[in-house]
Design brief:
The protein is α/β, with parallel strands linked by helices and about 525 residues long. Among the domains are: about 100 residues, Beta Barrel (OB fold (Dihydrolipoamide Acetyltransferase, E2P)), CATH 2.40.50.140; about 140 residues, 3-Layer(aba) Sandwich (Rossmann fold), CATH 3.40.50; about 60 residues; about 40 residues, no CATH class. It has a 5-stranded mixed β-barrel with strand order 1-2-3-5-4. Helix 8 links the parallel strand 9 and strand 10. Helix 5 packs parallel to helix 9 and helix 6 runs parallel beside helix 7. It is flat, with a radius of gyration of 71 Å.
């Protein structure tokens, strides 16, 4: 019984976590390989660093994770937005890292026309807030373009209607840029076509259109979605060539209609808007020519009658020339006396100038300057004599003053020498007395200092009964601890020194009895240090 209780119960196989996750993944993918799920986008996270998109689809009772891979996200016509109700098509799979299941989306579309209209309205408001639909950006359509660019499908009835209408009204050169007007790549092709027409250079091998028509026939809202894409709207708003939008029927409205410079309800209407009717234009030009001819004729008649009226009011040649001729005769009669008077006036003026020139001639000026120079010479000679006399007088006075000053200086110098001799004798006597007094004071002070040195020296202390004890090296013994038994010491007194040997000692103040030794009388005394 014990052995059976320890064995595993039943025959259930053991699964690893990875094996179990793989089995669940295969089971779910086999049963739900391709599904369409309707729900509201929640927790939307835009393209992350890898380019993938993550969010959730939810309804009132449940929620499922969703992922759109980078390559699929770039092809989507409907971009996911937070809170948008959509229908997602894809496959169900599991994610083992979180033990969860998710849907990998291949396509995305709004859930119903109402949601699609709400999406378009939100996009229209956002682009309008950027100013892409403002009237200030609109360009005028040329009255008679030389080249017309058409962006549409090359195989549909639209291009035939446009060409037929242009042929009826006013034949023009047409450049067709073929595009898909429906499908995943339609929006990008239309935007590239608009940019391509604008990129054509002026005067290049391919003529640059004067106006562009973007045309498509009618269809459902989903069929016209390419012309609601933001890339197409921005390309239309940025076009430097005037652009006409002709998408759908009269009741159809797309976002490119707001960005275009002119919106036409049908492609045929666009052809009618870009060119006038040739017959009407020719009739209008002929009418203008007739009106111009009549106006010129009436103007010529009026100018001719005005000229005749002016000619009648003008006087004859004799009446015009009689007054000037009479004035000429009078002037000729007064000319001879006037010339004589004029000559006399000029002669008098010339004489006055001659006299003024003679007064200002170089000879007169030179004579005046010579007279002034002679006067200056006489003044200089007189001034020189006066200056010499004054200088001689000043020199004589200076010589007398110099002799007087020399005598006075000689007397003052003799008196100064006598005074300084007397003063130097007095100063020498005072210096001798002061030097003797100073020597006396210094000798007294030296004697007192020598007496003080003798009283403070070690000999005076030794004379009072003290002694200096030294060891064999001559160093002072300062404590009893240094006097070891048997140690030879030297004792210095005031009148000599002798040697002793330590026989014993005490730590107190007892003095050891010295052993008599031979005294070295008359030996030299050496001053010791008591401190």
């Amino acid at each position: 019984m014990d052995s059976e209780s320890k064995s595993p119960a039943g025959n259930a196989p053991e699964w690893s976590v990875s094996d179990l996750s793989g089995a669940l993944k295969r089971t779910i993918e086999d049963n739900f390989g391709f599904v369409r799920v309707r729900g509201e986008i929640s927790g939307y996270r835009g393209p992350v660093a890898s380019g993938h998109v993550y969010f959730s689809l939810k309804d009132t009772n449940a929620k499922i994770d969703a992922v759109i891979w980078k390559g699929v996200f770039g092809r989507l016509k409907t971009r996911p937005q937070e809170g948008l109700e959509v229908i997602a098509t894809g496959k169900i799979t599991t994610f083992a890292g979180k033990s969860s299941y998710q849907i990998v989306i291949d396509s995305l579309e709004p859930a119903g026309v109402g949601a699609l209209m709400a999406l378009l309205e939100e996009r229209r408001k956002r682009l309008a807030a950027e100013g892409l639909f403002s009237e200030e950006r609109k360009q005028l359509i040329p009255y008679l373009p030389s080249v017309i660019g058409v962006i549409t499908s090359p195989t549909g009835a639209v291009i035939r209607d446009i060409l037929h209408r242009l042929e009826d009204r006013f034949p023009r050169r047409v450049l067709v840029w073929p595009v898909r007007v429906q499908g995943e790549t339609s929006a990008a092709e239309v935007a590239n076509a608009i940019a391509g027409f604008n990129a054509l250079p002026e005067g290049g091998p391919i003529p640059r259109p004067d106006v562009i028509i973007v045309a498509r026939g009618g269809g459902s809202l989903e069929d016209l979605m390419s012309f609601n894409e933001e890339i197409v709207v921005r390309a239309a708003a940025a076009s430097g060539i005037p652009l006409v939008s002709a998408v759908g029927h009269e009741t159809d409205t797309t976002l490119i209609d707001f960005a275009a410079d002119l919106r036409c309800p049908t492609p045929t209407g666009a052809a009618e808007k870009v060119v006038p009717v040739r017959a009407e234009l020719m009739g209008f030009v002929a009418d203008l020519a007739r009106r111009h001819e009549g106006a010129m004729r009436r103007l010529s008649d009026r100018r001719r009658s005005d000229l005749r009226a002016l000619a009648r009011a003008l006087p004859g040649p004799e009446a015009v020339l009689s007054g000037p001729r009479q004035r000429l005769d009078l002037a000729a009669a007064r000319l001879a006396p006037a010339l004589a008077r004029n000559a006399r006036v000029h002669e008098l003026a010339l004489q006055n100038l001659s006299r003024r020139l003679e007064a200002r001639s170089p000879r007169v000026a030179l004579a005046g300057l010579r007279e002034k120079l002679n006067g200056y010479s006489r003044v200089l000679a007189a001034a020189r004599g006066n200056a010499i006399t004054a200088e001689r007088t000043r020199i004589a006075h200076a010589r007398d003053r110099l002799a007087t000053l020399e005598a006075r200086a000689r007397n003052a110098f003799g008196q100064s020498l006598a005074q300084r001799g007397d003063r130097s004798g007095a100063l020498a006597e005072r210096a001798s007395r002061a030097f003797g007094q100073q020597l006396q004071r210094r000798g007294d002070r030296l004697a007192s200092l020598w007496a003080l040195i003798g009283s403070l020296g070690p000999e005076a202390v030794l004379a009072r009964g003290y002694a200096l004890i030294r060891d064999e090296a001559g160093a002072l013994v300062r404590s009893v601890g240094e006097a070891h038994p048997g140690r030879a010491l030297s004792v210095q007194l005031s009148d000599g020194r002798f040697g002793v040997t330590v026989s014993g000692g005490e730590s107190g103040g007892g003095r050891p009895a010295p052993r008599p030794a031979t005294r070295k009388a008359g030996g030299p005394t050496t001053q010791g240090d008591l401190f």
